[in-house]
Design a protein that fits this description.
This protein is 52% helix and 13% strand. The chain folds into seven domains: 118 residues, no CATH class; 123 residues, Pleckstrin-homology domain (PH domain)/Phosphotyrosine-binding domain (PTB) (PH-domain like); 110 residues, PH-domain like (Roll); 181 residues, Helicase, Ruva Protein, domain 3; 153 residues, Ypt/Rab-GAP domain of gyp1p, domain 3 (Cyclin A, domain 1, Orthogonal Bundle), CATH 1.10.472; 111 residues, no CATH class; 205 residues, no CATH class. Strand 15 and strand 16 form a beta hairpin. The chain is α+β, with helices and mostly antiparallel strands. InterPro entries: EF-hand-dom_pair (IPR011992), EF_hand_dom (IPR002048), GRAM (IPR004182), PH-like_dom_sf (IPR011993), Rab-GAP-TBC_dom (IPR000195), Rab-GAP_TBC_sf (IPR035969), TCB1D9/TCB1D9B_PH-GRAM1 (IPR036014), TCB1D9/TCB1D9B_PH-GRAM2 (IPR036017).
Length: 1223
């Protein structure tokens, strides 16, 4: 490629000149290509260590003038072809022009200007994405594609210099991190190391420091471990690796591929060696931390943050922290944790103005809200720019737009950008179900607890007084710190939450602390619209919801009548309609029923959205991955905090059993309601860390008893009874009997545990848990859990098809890995939308991964035991159509294995039956048969339409005779049939057996196969010929198939003769036929002519393409075989010698009249059966040995597995360059 002219002082250092003229020199890097010796090894090592571009571009063109020692590099190339094109262009366009100049400086100026002009023209056609990346990074990306054979769709994120430990020896080289792969390359003194690891294969990622591997990164897969060390900045590298591995796990989980964020603002200046993708990933990481810190929606994007101070009127002091600005919010977080946090939605902002600066209050900024609150920020570094950005965002807020356009009414209901307003519901039917949705049923506009509260609080005495004191404490807090979204959140807020939120404020504060309030206000009317759209739809989710409705807190009065049940149904159905990916999962009904007690339906819906999509990610999908991940985190925390108990519990296997229900239902299913709801209070304020703290506190409180347990059941009983007796003595609600407690109540109840004491203990002993540490642990566990689920899916699929296949378990597992990898590759570099449609996690494991015809052809070519050369793709396409029973153009793993199993483990009859079917519909398309005979039809004049083969008249006669005999038998036995019916009355077992027999799939026999016509037989001969082209006994097999083809042609002709005779006997007006001698021979010659034409075409396909090599090479390529090569048109079928191969037919010979041309057309009456094909092939020992030979698929799989590490999808020009580069 042309490069911007750069000065080169030493033109011949490490370079060899190959061409030269008065103005230009073409050079090659020493050590590139064949030879090179010690110098080549040293130069190659130097290029890799120093990351020299000469490793990728070993050719260059220099510009020189006269005797000057100063050279200018103007072009480089990765192959000789590329650099030669540039050289020829210079000679053709510049050489004569430069000879006119008299001054060397003018020549150099002209050349530099010309080259820069060419580069400027090329840059105009480049995409904006490429323009963002600097030249050095684009060079590294090109280097990655060349070294590892990656396609253009594979994007490099970043690359680092490091050492890869191979054994005990570190190999210095370069680590390339792309979106889908981790790659490493090293070349030291002739020793080349190339490593490619898919992110989807990574099972563990650790950063550790040991004596053997100082400050290294360990990348673990199922098979091996890789260690990388000596990074310049190991922390940044490890964070990027975590991000890329996380994206890969997300792809395995729900098939979400990575898509770059093109709306990311461009940097003010080009960042050195930083790609746009790296900036994109950094921005994503910041956005995720920002949203998690302030509980914001998934579509909220951080615009920037700056250090500042916030004036806190309640403490009369300035708090140091950071201001965060996004498209809808201004947020503040103090540097000291829990000191102060603030969220200001821009929809609430009325005034943003710069206040007067002073020495005490430099660069202040005042923000006023609609509810008369004013926030004063100071010590802002770039206040003017910040005010401008906030003003820009204010102009885009919906309320501002409405006020600017003069609209007084509220904005129209909008829908979240992350989900469509009318999401598709798979398998739904528009069936109105009045008992599910009825307009007569009232919608809950307030919490169900308020409606069904029994007794007045005044009647409860001290408990009511305690509740009123709580309410008064919160009212004082609201007066001092503010109320609503813009409230100052401090450590005092947390203390009040830990003391219990009063029932009258619970719904409001849950919405506030979870962030659901912001989503609900931003999308007015969305819930009502969802309920209306979901009304009457019947799906799998609605059926599961209906089944679990009456299991949701059945002990509570609110859910013992239709109003509470209907409200719960509407909320769950609306969410299942909003998010079909989750739909409905067990435990959602328990959590939602608690939400409905304190909130309206719409508020409960948005709280459920916050739970499922933000606060408990992946908890409620089909495989409860999030709960399993947190279960692993809990085990890790137990190992760190309670090591002695952890070892004992691991032996019993208790932790994994108990923790799943604790996390999925937030203790609501294992603890009395009045106590568990206090944990929900803490959860909405603190997040998941409080659930971990309480879980550890429960284990710690029962440590002594658990250590004395001898089995799992005893430990479960101890923990169950402990949780049943966790009470809330301050509740004003009537006691609700806990179902689990009723079932496990004993004679001696254990002592009661106050829930407030349990929460206090959890904060005292385990309050040091941090949210960022939990997220880090979640990442490690997510790798293990998802890979474990993938392994479970693989084992389930293998068990399901093990009885239907002759492959071993190990072979089936390897085949599954290759099959799934082919699907994932299509997600990487193919059409991601179609691949996403193929993967449905709700389907059984056997149906989840499916491949299309193109992917099947690639796998068939790599794994099939029959090598057919250029005909392989045709044969694979036919097999695909044969296996695709439901005609959806996709096949699953079971169908794929069925096709391979017949080829590898079937006997000779099974293999021939498969080949036979591949040349009959639906495997053989009519277009294929027609295209195969286009050359033959070109030479024929017979325009008579030819019908497809049907049953012969002999077959009809046989059927008539059979049916006549059956009718006679029925007539003979018809007289006493009624007596027999009365004598033998069948019982129900007989009919059950008959029904079971009808349900069993009938095994196909060779007699069930249809007959094959002449066109299909010609295609079969062509396939067999291609199959034998690479066999060691090639010539013997050619002779055998020629003999069998001739025999079958004669059999078909003889069969046609009997068919014609039968038809003439059936015709009353048929005239006697006088058979002329030689008629049969002419038919045989015609069929032989067609077969020989097909074999000639097949043989031409197997020949290698003509080359420009030496005469000896050409002679070797054109010599077909050692057998005699004759024209089949000059031989009768019985004249074929043992050493003759049929190549072609004489068309325009001496006897080439109309009769001979007509004889070359396929015969529509000609047909053969599978039994005849089988019997004919059994007469040739060579063919019998070929089809009875056993093949081992393991070697094929090993080769395919080695090649599939990199799926090469490179253009032909790139292939040529790589070929040149490797020479």
């Amino acid at each position: 490629m042309w490069i911007s002219p750069e000065e080169v002082l030493l033109a011949n250092a490490l370079w060899v000149s190959e061409r030269a003229n008065p103005f230009f020199i073409l050079q090659r890097r020493k050590g590139h290509g064949k030879g090179g010796g010690i110098t080549g090894l040293l130069v190659g090592t130097l290029d890799v260590v120093l990351d020299s571009s000469a490793r990728v571009a070993p050719y260059r063109i220099l510009h020189q003038t006269g005797d000057s020692q100063l050279f200018w590099s103007i072009a480089c190339g990765s192959s000789r072809k590329e650099i030669t094109e540039h050289w020829e262009w210079l000679e053709a366009n510049l050489l004569q022009t430069l000879s006119i100049f008299d001054n060397d400086e003018d020549i150099t100026t002209f050349v530099k200007g010309k080259i820069q002009g060419i580069i400027a023209e090329e840059n105009k056609s480049r995409q904006a994405q490429e323009d963002e990346d600097c030249g050095k990074f684009r060079e590294a990306e090109l280097k990655m594609r060349k070294l590892f054979g990656m396609p253009e769709e594979e994007k490099l994120v970043n690359y680092y210099s490091c050492s890869y430990w191979k054994g005990r020896v570190p190999r210095q080289g370069w680590l390339y991190l792309s979106v889908n792969h981790l790659c490493f390359y090293s070349f030291l003194l002739g020793k080349e190391v190339t490593l490619i690891v898919q992110w989807t294969d990574v099972t563990q990622l650790d950063k550790n420091a040991t004596l053997l591997f100082p400050e290294s990164v360990r990348v673990s897969t199922r098979d091996t471990e890789h260690y990388f060390s000596m990074f310049l900045n190991i922390n940044d590298t490890f964070k990027l690796m975590e991000q890329l591995a996380n994206i890969a796990m997300r792809q395995l989980l729900d098939n979400e591929g990575f898509s770059a964020d093109h709306s990311l603002p461009k940097p003010c200046k080009t960042l050195k060696n930083v790609s746009a993708l790296k900036r994109d990933l950094d921005a994503r990481a910041k956005n995720e931390r920002y949203r998690a810190l302030f509980r914001l929606t998934k579509d909220e994007r951080l615009d920037g943050h700056t250090d500042c101070t916030l004036w806190t009127p309640f403490a009369k002091m300035h708090v140091v922290g950071q201001m965060f600005v996004s498209n809808n919010y201004i947020c503040f977080a103090s540097r000291e944790e829990d000191l102060c946090q603030l969220i200001i939605p821009l929809r609430e902002v009325s005034i943003v103005e710069k206040a007067d600066s002073s020495s005490v209050l430099p660069s202040p900024l005042s923000i006023s809200t609609k509810n008369k609150m004013t926030f004063l920020f100071a010590n802002l570094k770039d206040r003017d720019f910040l005010v401008q950005r906030i003003s820009d965002f204010l102009q885009r807020t919906p309320d501002r737009l409405c006020s600017m356009t003069g609209q007084s009414e509220s904005p129209s209901p909008s829908t979240p950008s992350s989900l469509p307003p009318t999401p598709p519901v798979l398998g739904s039917s528009e069936v109105t179900q009045d008992r599910y949705y009825s307009s007569s049923l009232p919608t809950a506009k307030q919490g169900l607890l308020h409606i069904y509260q029994k007794g007045r609080p005044e009647d409860l005495g001290p408990k009511a007084t305690k509740e009123k004191m709580k309410e008064e404490s919160w009212n004082i807090h609201f007066f001092e710190f503010g109320r609503g979204v813009c409230m100052y959140r401090t450590s005092k807020t947390r203390d009040l939450v830990l003391k219990g939120i009063p029932e009258s404020l619970r719904g409001e504060l849950w919405l506030l602390f979870s962030g659901a309030q912001n989503e609900m206000v931003s999308h007015p009317g969305y819930y009502a619209e969802l309920v209306e759209q979901a009304m009457g739809r019947c799906t799998l989710a609605t059926e599961e919801i209906e089944r679990d409705l009456h299991r949701s807190m059945p002990e509570h009065h609110a859910f013992q009548n239709e109003m509470g049940i209907a409200a719960l149904r509407r909320v769950l159905t609306a969410y299942a309609y909003r998010n079909p990916g989750i739909g409905y999962c067990q435990a959602m009904n328990i959590v939602t029923s608690v939400l409905l007690l304190y909130c309206t339906e719409e508020e409960a819906f948005w709280l459920l959205v916050a739970l499922c999509e933000r606060m408990l990610p992946d908890y409620y999908n089909t495989r409860v991955v999030g709960a399993l991940v947190d279960q692993g985190v809990f085990e890790e925390l137990t190992r760190e905090c309670l090591p002695l108990l952890y070892e004992h519990m691991q032996e019993l296997g208790v932790i994994s059993t108990i923790s799943l229900s604790w996390f999925l239902t937030l203790f609501l299913s294992v603890m009395p309601f009045d106590s568990a709801v206090l944990l929900v209070d803490c959860f909405f304020y603190e997040g998941i860390k409080v659930i971990f703290q309480v879980s550890l506190a429960v284990l710690h409180a029962n440590m002594e008893k658990l250590l004395n347990c001898t089995d799992e059941g005893e430990a479960m009983t101890i923990l169950g009874r402990y949780l049943d007796n966790v009470v809330n003595k301050q509740t004003v609600s009537p006691p609700i009997p806990h179902l689990h407690a009723l079932l496990t109540s004993g004679d001696e109840p254990p002592p009661e545990i106050d829930i407030f004491d349990l929460i206090k203990t959890s904060y005292e002993k385990f309050g040091s848990l941090r949210a960022d540490v939990i997220e880090q642990m979640r990442f490690k566990q997510r790798l293990k859990v998802i890979q474990s689920l993938e392994d479970t899916a693989k084992r389930s699929v293998v068990r399901a098809i093990m009885t239907d296949s002759a492959f071993s378990i190990e072979e089936l597992e390897e085949l599954y890995v290759l099959f799934k990898a082919k699907h994932i590759m299509s997600c990487y570099w193919g059409a991601s939308s179609s691949a996403a449609e193929r993967h449905d996690p709700s389907l059984p494991y056997l149906e989840q991964y499916r491949i299309d015809c193109g992917q099947f052809i690639q796998l068939f070519s790599a794994l099939a035991p029959w090598s057919c050369g250029m005909h392989t793709s045709t044969l694979a396409a036919r097999l695909f159509r044969l296996l695709d029973h439901n005609k959806d153009s996709l096949i699953n793993f079971k169908e794929f294995v069925t096709g391979l199993s017949g080829m590898y483990h079937g006997d000779m009859t099974e293999k021939l039956k498969l080949l036979y079917k591949l040349h009959l519909p639906p495997a053989l398309c009519p277009e294929e048969a027609e295209s195969a005979l286009e050359a033959t039809h070109f030479f024929t004049d017979d325009d008579t339409p030819q019908d497809p083969p049907s049953l012969s008249h002999l077959d009809f006669l046989v059927q008539e005779v059979t049916s006549g005999e059956e009718a006679k038998e029925v007539a003979d036995t018809g007289g006493d049939s009624e007596e027999k019916k009365e004598e033998k009355v069948k019982d129900y077992k007989y009919y059950l057996r008959m029904w079971a027999k009808e349900r069993e799939p009938k095994k196909e026999t060779i007699k069930d196969l249809p007959r094959m016509n002449q066109e299909q037989f010609i295609e079969l001969c062509k396939t067999l010929y291609n199959m034998f082209s690479e066999d060691p006994l090639e010539q013997e097999l050619y002779h055998a198939i020629a003999t069998v083809a001739s025999l079958l042609l004669r059999i078909g002709e003889v069969g046609k003769k009997f068919t014609n005779n039968g038809s003439k006997k059936c015709d009353a007006q048929a005239q006697p036929v006088v058979e002329t001698p030689g008629k049969e021979d002419s038919f045989g010659e015609a069929g032989c002519s067609l077969v020989s034409k097909a074999l000639a075409e097949a043989q031409l396909e197997t020949l290698p393409p003509p080359s420009n090599g030496s005469d000896e090479d050409v002679k070797d390529d054109t010599s077909i075989s050692s057998y005699s090569v004759v024209s089949a048109g000059s031989l009768q079928c019985e004249d074929i010698a043992d050493d003759t191969v049929l190549i072609g037919c004489g068309v325009g010979g001496a006897g080439g009249g109309s009769d001979s041309r007509r004889g070359s057309a396929p015969d529509g009456d000609w047909s053969i059966s599978f039994e005849q094909v089988l019997a004919s092939l059994l007469t040739e020992p060579a063919l019998v040995n070929y089809f009875e030979k056993k093949h081992d698929i393991r070697s094929k799989m090993a080769l395919c597995k080695a090649q599939r590490a990199v799926e090469r999808q490179i253009s032909s020009s790139s292939d040529h360059e790589l070929a040149q580069l490797s020479t």
